[in-house]
Write a structure and sequence with these properties.
The complex is a heterodimer of chains A (about 350) and B (about 230).
Chain A lengths: L1 E12 L2 E13 L4 E5 L6 H8 L7 E6 L2 E2 L5 H8 L2 E5 L10 H12 L3 H14 L15 H13 L5 E5 L7 H18 L2 E6 L2 H7 L2 E6 L2 E7 H6 L4 H11 L3 H10 L6 E8 L7 H8 L3 E12 L2 E11 L3 H10 L3 E6 L2
Parallel strand pairs in A: 3-8, 3-9, 6-7, 7-8
Antiparallel strand pairs in A: 1-2, 1-4, 4-5, 9-10, 11-13, 11-14, 12-13
Helix pairs in contact in A: 3-4, 3-5, 4-5, 5-6
Chain B lengths: L1 H9 L5 H35 L9 H16 L2 H7 L1 H8 L5 H25 L3 H9 L4 H35 L6 H12 L3 H29 L3
Helix pairs in contact in B: 2-3, 2-6, 2-8, 2-9, 3-6, 5-6, 6-8, 7-8, 8-9, 8-10, 9-10
The chains are: A alpha/beta (about 350), B mainly alpha (about 230).
Chain lengths: ~350, ~230
C-alpha cells in the first residue's frame, strides 16, 4: 500500500544541513496498522508528512496506493491527497464551523453534492460516536470529541490510508484508549491502512501490528510488535519497550532487594502469546528444590497476542538448574542480579 | 421637526437643515469608502499574508512591493494625502469637490491601514488548520475562501470597525478640500464664523455615528466568534 525507497529530507539551516530523514526504505501493507515510534527530533513527523507531500522529499520516492506521490503536482496531487486522510495532535478543526460542517469540509473540497454531503456526514457522525453533536462548535467539545471529529473528517472521502500525526499525544490516558479503540474499529470495519507516529510505546502495544523505531532520521529496528517486545535489539528499542513493561518504580524497588543477601538470583522472564498463560513457576517449583518469590509481574495485550513480563527471585540449592530449565522453554530469561 | 424646533431654542444659531445635510454627506462618504476599503483592504491584506515567507504564494519581490506601498500610504498624514491626490481624483472623477470626490482619497488612505489589520488577523490563524486543509487536497482558492476568510472573520470585522471610526475622522478632514460633511460644517460655519453651537452639535453628531458604528461592530464580532 505504501512503499518508501531511499527517502530523505535535508533541511538547510544557518548551522549547516540537518538530515531529518536519512534514506529510509519502508513497506507498509494494505490493511495494517503500522506504528513509527521515536523521540522528538527523530524525524518521524517529517517522515509522515512526506507521505502526503506536506513536506517535499529532498530525494527518494514515495508510493501510496499505487501513486508515485513525489512525481505529482497541482490538481493531480490534490486528488491523490483526497485519498489519504490525516489526523493531527492538535486536531486542526475549523472553529468557525460546526462539527457537521467540519466533517463536510473535505466533501466540499472534492465537490460532492449537498445532499450526498449531508448523508455522508450523518453516517460519519454515527461512526465516530458523536450522534447529536453535529450542530456543536469545536470549542464546545472535549479533546477526545475533537479528535473524533478529526477522524470523521479524515474518513469523509473514503481514503485508502489514514495518517495519524501524534493523534493521541494531547489527550489524557483514558481518552487516548477510547480513540485507539476507535482506530482499531475503523481499521477492522473499513480495512483501512493506518500509519501512526507516536512517542508512546503504549500506543504501539495497544493497536499496531508492526512497528518501526526511529532514531536520528533512520529506522533502527522494525518488525512485528510482538517480536519487538520479545526481543528488542537496539538500545533505543529496549528503552521504549521498558515504557510498557516496567513501571518506573520497578528499578528502584528491585535495587532495594539486591542489597538483601537473602534475595538470591533475580530474573526477568518475558512471555509471549500462549506462553504467557503457562504455569511455568509451578513447574520449576515442583521439579527443582528452589524457592521462588514473585517480585513484580504484568501482562499486556498487543494486536497479535499477549505479552507478559515477570520479575522473580530464585533461591535454593537447585537454582542454577531451574534457570537452565527455564531457558529451554519458550521464555526469554534475563538474569538481572546474582546467579 | 417639532423636536428640532424645540432644540433650536437652545442652539438658535444651528441651521438644522444644513446639519442634517452634512450628516448625510458624512454617512455617505463613510459608508461608500468603508465598503471599498473593506474590499481593497482584504485584497491587500491577503496578498501581504500570502506572499510572506512560508505561505501559499511566497514571493519576496511581491511581498516587498506591497509592503512598501502599504507602509508609504499608511504613513502620509491624511490631510496631505488628499492634497497630493487632487490630480488623481480629477483624472478619475472630473472634479475634486463634493462628497463623492473624497472617496478615492479616503479609500487610498484607509485601505493600507486596514490591510495591515487583515494581515495580522490572517497570521493569527493556526498554521495547522491551513496544513490540514492542504492535506485534504484543498486548492489555494479553497483555502482562501473556506479557511482563511471565515476563520479570521471576527478579527476582520473588529478591524473594519476600527477603520470605520478612523474613516469618520478622515471625512472631517476631507471636508476641508470641499467634500462637505460634518467636519466641513464645523470648520466653516462653526469655527470660521465663530459659531461654537454648530461646532459642538457637529461633534455630538459625529460621536453618535462613531458609537453606532462601534456598537454594530461589537455585536457582529461577538456573534461571529465561535471560539
Amino acid at each position: 500500500m505504501i512503499s518508501l525507497s531511499q527517502l530523505a529530507k535535508i533541511f538547510p539551516t544557518k548551522d549547516g544541513d540537518v538530515t531529518a530523514v536519512d534514506h529510509i526504505d519502508l513497506t507498509i501493507d494494505q490493511g495494517e496498522i503500522f506504528g513509527v515510534i521515536g523521540y522528538s527530533g527523530a524525524g518521524k513527523s517529517t517522515l509522515i508528512r512526506m507521505l502526503n507531500m506536506l513536506e517535499a522529499p529532498t530525494s527518494g520516492a514515495v508510493e501510496v496506493a499505487g501513486r508515485n506521490m513525489n512525481s505529482l503536482s497541482g490538481r493531480k496531487l490534490r486528488e491523490a491527497r483526497q485519498e489519504i486522510g490525516m489526523i493531527f495532535q492538535h486536531f486542526n478543526l475549523l472553529w468557525s464551523r460546526t462539527v457537521a460542517e467540519n466533517i463536510a469540509f473535505p466533501l466540499e473540497i472534492k465537490g460532492v453534492s449537498k445532499a450526498e454531503q449531508k448523508e455522508r456526514v450523518d453516517e460519519l457522525i454515527e461512526l465516530v460516536g458523536l450522534s447529536g453533536r453535529g450542530g456543536s462548535y469545536p470549542s464546545q467539545l472535549s479533546g477526545g470529541q475533537k479528535q473524533r471529529v478529526g477522524i470523521a473528517r479524515a474518513l469523509a472521502n473514503n481514503p485508502k490510508v489514514l495518517l495519524c500525526d501524534e493523534a493521541t499525544s494531547a489527550l489524557d490516558p483514558k481518552t487516548t484508549d477510547s480513540i485507539l479503540d476507535l482506530l482499531v474499529d475503523i481499521n477492522q470495519k473499513l480495512g483501512l491502512t493506518i500509519v501512526l507516529i507516536t512517542h508512546e510505546m503504549h500506543v504501539i502495544r495497544k493497536i499496531c501490528h508492526r512497528v518501526a523505531v526511529m532514531e536520528g532520521g533512520r529506522v533502527v529496528e522494525q518488525g512485528d510488535v510482538l517480536d519487538i517486545f520479545r526481543r528488542p535489539q537496539q538500545a533505543m528499542t529496549k528503552e521504549f519497550v521498558k515504557q510498557v513493561t516496567e513501571p518506573e518504580e520497578t528499578e528502584e524497588a528491585l535495587r532495594h532487594l539486591f542489597d538483601d543477601e537473602r534475595t538470591g538470583s533475580v530474573l526477568q522472564l518475558t512471555f509471549v502469546g500462549g506462553d504467557a498463560q503457562r504455569p511455568l513457576i509451578t513447574n520449576i517449583v515442583r521439579k527443582f528444590e528452589v524457592d521462588v518469590s514473585i517480585l513484580q509481574g504484568k501482562i499486556s495485550q498487543t494486536q497479535h497476542g499477549s505479552y507478559g513480563s515477570l520479575f522473580i527471585s530464585v533461591t535454593g540449592p537447585q537454582a542454577e538448574e531451574a534457570i537452565a530449565f527455564m531457558r529451554e522453554q519458550q521464555v526469554e530469561v534475563e538474569v538481572i542480579h546474582g546467579g | 421637526m417639532d423636536k428640532l424646533m424645540t432644540a433650536s431654542v437652545f442652539f438658535s444659531e444651528v441651521n438644522w437643515e444644513n446639519m442634517w445635510d452634512a450628516t448625510l454627506e458624512t454617512i455617505y462618504m463613510t459608508v461608500f469608502s468603508l465598503v471599498l476599503t473593506f474590499l481593497f483592504g482584504i485584497i491587500l491584506g491577503l496578498l501581504l499574508f500570502l506572499t510572506a515567507r512560508g505561505q501559499l504564494w511566497e514571493n519576496k519581490t511581491a511581498h516587498f512591493i506591497i509592503g512598501a506601498y502599504v507602509n508609504i500610504f499608511r504613513s502620509i498624514p491624511f490631510i496631505i494625502l488628499i492634497v497630493l491626490l487632487i490630480p488623481f481624483t480629477l483624472a478619475l472623477l472630473g472634479t475634486f469637490l463634493g462628497p463623492g470626490a473624497a472617496v478615492p482619497a479616503l479609500v487610498i488612505g484607509a485601505a493600507p491601514f486596514y490591510a495591515r489589520m487583515v494581515e495580522i488577523a490572517l497570521r493569527e490563524i493556526d498554521r495547522g488548520v491551513i496544513e490540514a486543509s492542504k492535506a485534504m487536497g484543498a486548492s489555494n482558492g479553497q483555502i482562501i475562501w473556506k479557511v482563511l476568510l471565515p476563520e479570521s472573520m471576527p478579527a476582520l470585522v473588529s478591524g473594519i470597525t476600527v477603520t470605520a471610526i478612523a474613516l469618520v475622522s478622515y471625512t472631517a478632514m476631507a471636508g476641508v478640500i470641499g467634500a462637505g460633511g460634518l467636519g466641513d460644517l464645523a470648520f466653516r460655519d462653526g469655527f470660521q464664523r465663530n459659531n461654537p453651537d454648530i461646532t459642538l452639535t457637529a461633534t455630538v453628531v459625529i460621536l453618535i455615528i462613531v458609537f453606532i458604528l462601534q456598537f454594530i461592530g461589537d455585536q457582529l464580532t461577538s456573534r461571529l466568534d465561535k471560539r
